[in-house]
Amino acid sequence: MFHRHGVSGPDRIGTGRTQVTDERKGDCQGNQDKCNLDGCPKFGTLGKPGRDGNRRIKGCGDPVARGKRNRTKGDNKARRARKKLGLAATGKAGTRHEEHWGGMFRVEVKAGAQVGPIWTRFSSARAQSEASKAHGDIRPFIMIAMPDGTSEGIVLLGLQDLADLVSLIQT
Predict the structure, then answer these.
(1) For the chain, percent helix, then strand, then coil, each to nearest 5?
(2) What is the mean pLDDT of the chain?
(3) Residue 143 needs a FRET pair 20 to 30 A away by CA distance; which of 6, 8, 49, 98 works?
(4) Model-level pTM?
(5) CA distances (Å), 42 to each of 50, 56, 59, 61, 161, in order?
(6) Phi, psi at residue 161, to the nearest 5°?
(7) Residue 125: in which H helix or E strand, if any?
(8) What are phi and psi of 31, to 5 degrees?
(9) Dihedral pair phi/psi, residue 119, rounded to 5°
(10) Is the peptide bond before 147 cis (omega within 30 degrees of 0)?
(11) Within the chain, how many helices (H) and strands (E) appear?
(12) Buried b / exposed e across 127-158, counting CB within 10 Å, b at 16+?
């Protein structure tokens, strides 16, 4: 019987203690041809087997491992955003799919490097606004982006500011 920290049960050696086995550590079993890490395969503590049956170390650079990390990061950010806004997940899909969230508006959460330039522009605009803000002004900051070639704009505001506005609307 295998447990997180080694072998226990009838296969254990010793008296009532869990023995750490060598199967916890080894060379990463990810796709070495497509790995973007130098010195692949890395040696370290192996995780649980993936769908393909391979066990990878933390930080493995093959496409399967990167995809799993990206998905996990996106799911975590979406979960935080949903909780911050007080939105409920409906149906059997749970919280992963924004399409199944309740609430008064549709939401799509993006995370990672793709939103870096947006955050940079938003932060610069907010700093500019804060520098010229009147003393005692408590209004939340909202950035409106108006791209060339369209009369439509995009509204950006901080997540906490949106949560505060939603709670005001609902009361």
Answers:
(1) 35, 15, 50
(2) 79
(3) 98
(4) 0.62
(5) 17, 9, 9, 10, 44
(6) -60, -40
(7) helix 116-131
(8) -70, 100
(9) -65, -40
(10) no
(11) 3, 6
(12) eeeeeeeeeeeeeebbbeeeeeeeeeeeebbe
Partnered with residue 151 across adjacent β-strands are none
The DSSP code sequence of 17-43 is: SPBPPGGGEEE--S-TTT--STTSSPE
| Contact predicate 56/62, CB 8 Å | yes
d(CA 32, CA 14): 38
Per-residue pLDDT tens digits for 117-141: 999 999 999 999 999 999 999 888 9
Amino acid at 23: E
Beta bridge partners of residue 155, listed in sequence order? 144
Q: Which residues pair with 6 in a beta bridge?
A: 3
